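so my prof wants the structure for this chain in the tokens format not the other one, which i didnt know existed until like an hour ago. anyway here's the sequence
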Amino acid sequence: MEYPLNIPLNTRRLLLNNNKITSLPALQLGFLSDLVYLDCQNNRIRELMDYTFIGVFKLIYLDLSSNNLTSISPFSFSVLSNLVQLNLSNNPHLLSIDIYTFANTSSLRYLDLRNTGLQTMDHDVLHHLEVLQTLYLSGNPWNCNCSFLDFAIHLLVSNMDYPGTLLYLSTSGKSELQRSEAPY
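here's what i got, hopefully its the right format
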């Protein structure tokens, strides 16, 4: 299914979840300048191109969970300086995130990267997220290497809340960030 074309231009909340949509066209989205809430979960979106969200400057909430994302271009979110909550969870083919992906999302407070295919992450990915409060990372097949170690150290010294997330390093060289409930 393709992205619907006749969406009223003054739409503020758009629910496109569970529609088998394969792409988000920047041109059509660009006309929705009042959009603050976009739910695209459980579709078939494979990639986000640079400037996909070029006209939706007011967007605060974006849910792209449970899609088929394989790549996110470095400047996909570049105009989303008001974005507060981003959910990219349950995209098992998403193997990497460029260090510039979140460069202009300076208002981002909640980022969900659970159950993706991420194996490592450069700590510079989070460098621009100065107000990030909650980061979910569990369910990823993390590989223990120097880049990942820098990332883990960055998490440990940050003021960010990563609920119940613990770092486990094994002798096999694999590491995993998992959710673990507090005993009390």
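also thought this was worth mentioning. The radius of gyration is 17 Å.
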